[in-house]
Design brief:
Layout lengths: L3 E8 L3 H8 L1 H5 L4 E5 L4 H7 L5 H9 L2 E6 L5 H6 L15 H8 L4 E7 L8 E7 L9 E2 L7 H9 L14 E2 L5 H18 L3 E6 L5 H15 L6 E6 H10 L6 E4 L1 H15 L6 E5 L4 E5 L16 H14 L2 H18 L11 H22 L7
Parallel strand pairs: 1-2, 1-3, 3-12, 5-10, 8-9, 8-10
Antiparallel strand pairs: 4-5, 4-11, 6-7, 11-12
Length: 383
């Protein structure tokens, strides 16, 4: 039997706590997975001026997948103030480890399932966010670059609606979208829809305002959609998608969007689910993948034993499915739903249970669900 290696990065804040809560699951399900552990995050930055040490990159490269707890990020000036005295003023720039992972590993697709964990299974859809381009491509300037001055001056001569007094009196952020980046994103979205049984892919954009970049994306989306005749494809304004995600979330299958729009919609999806404590995520590239809950490091919850581990368990379910353990992944997903609905909840969901109590209940239910699945469908029988 093939063994897999998973690199575990507990990270910052409540990251280590929710990570520790889920780790007993691997032994309970007796999966052929070896766990390795590495450092990442704020303490690495404060100690060495590098939030992702080189040894961590080596362990990530040697693993089949990576599981991340949570990351703390702070603005540039605050980050430099946290460095040891001998590292200040050395030109070290804090770059979020999450951004580093996505860019250096080529993880272009961020997958955020949105399911009715607390209700009656009324909705189930996925938001897929582009991870490397769009308004988060890094083309963000505190003043107008010299290369753009002729363009802005030409617009100003023809009555542009803004007023400024030179390049230092304005800032610019550019939305970068490449044909290759959008093509691979849209293919990923349609493939995800096909694999998960969704019958619709919706591109959320703003083509009525961002007319040229919107038309560019629409043309590529339409081309890709032709390869998937069994899946409906439509383009909606992002604000309309946000409205209908709240009012009628059951109408969606896969929602795909550029980086910033996808960022906003995926967090909105977490709210539709019941909160960030229930929201998992996966990041995929052509050769690598990492999985993390989306609640962040939540420093105010450190040491209180009330952090909701459900999002971390659901992220592990995505990891297990990626590695080929689909039955165990489904058993775990069902366990999270069963515990959240009928057994116990952490305070963020209105309950009084601790992190450990919820985690123990989920692991117990996962094992029971997995054993029941094996009894119903013995190895070698049709399922």
């Amino acid at each position: 039997m093939t063994r897999h290696r998973v690199c575990v990065l507990p990270g910052d804040g409540i990251g280590p706590q929710v990570t520790d809560a889920v780790l007993p699951l691997f032994d309970a399900l007796q999966l052929p997975i070896d766990l390795t552990f590495a450092e990442i995050g704020w303490e690495c930055w404060r100690r060495d001026g590098d939030p992702v040490p080189s040894r961590t990159w080596a362990q990530i490269a040697a693993a089949d997948a990576t599981l991340l707890g949570a990351i703390t990020s702070q603005p540039l000036h605050e980050a430099e103030a946290q460095l040891p005295e001998h590292l200040r003023g050395q030109g070290l720039n804090y770059v979020s480890p999450v951004i580093q992972l996505r860019q250096q590993l080529g993880l272009y697709a961020n997958v955020r399932p949105v399911t009715d964990v607390l209700g009656n299974d009324r909705f189930c859809f996925t938001v897929i966010r582009e991870n490397t381009e769009g308004l988060y491509a890094g083309l963000d300037y505190g003043r107008v670059p010299a290369e753009l001055e002729p363009l802005l001056q030409q617009r100003e001569l023809h009555g542009a609606p803004w007023t400024r007094n030179g390049p230092d009196d304005a800032c610019v952020a550019l939305r970068l979208q490449t044909r290759n980046g959008l093509t691979r994103l849209f293919h990923f979205a349609f493939e995800h829809a096909r694999q998960q049984g969704f019958d619709r892919v919706t591109l959320a954009d703003k083509p009525n305002v961002l007319r040229h970049s919107g038309a560019f994306a629409k043309g590529i989306f339409d081309e890709v959609a032709l390869h998937y005749p069994g899946i409906a494809a439509n383009i909606d304004n992002v604000d309309a998608v946000a409205l209908w995600m709240i009012r009628r979330p059951e109408r969606f299958g896969v929602v795909v969007a550029e980086n910033m729009f996808g960022d906003i919609l995926s967090d909105l999806g977490a709210g539709v689910m019941g909160g960030l404590g229930l929201a998992p995520s996966a990041n995929f590239g052509s050769k690598a993948a990492y999985f993390e809950p989306v609640h962040g490091s939540a420093p105010g919850y450190v040491g209180r034993n009330v952090a909701n581990p459900s999002a971390m368990f659901l992220s592990v379910a995505l990891l297990l499915d990626h590695l080929g353990y689909s039955d165990q992944a489904h058993a775990l997903q069902r366990a999270v739903t069963q515990v959240a609905r009928r057994v116990c909840q952490t305070p963020d969901l209105g309950g009084t249970a601790t992190t450990g109590q919820v985690a123990s209940a989920i692991i117990e239910r996962s094992l029971a669900n997995s054993l029941a699945s094996r009894t119903l469908y013995p190895v070698g029988s049709p399922s």
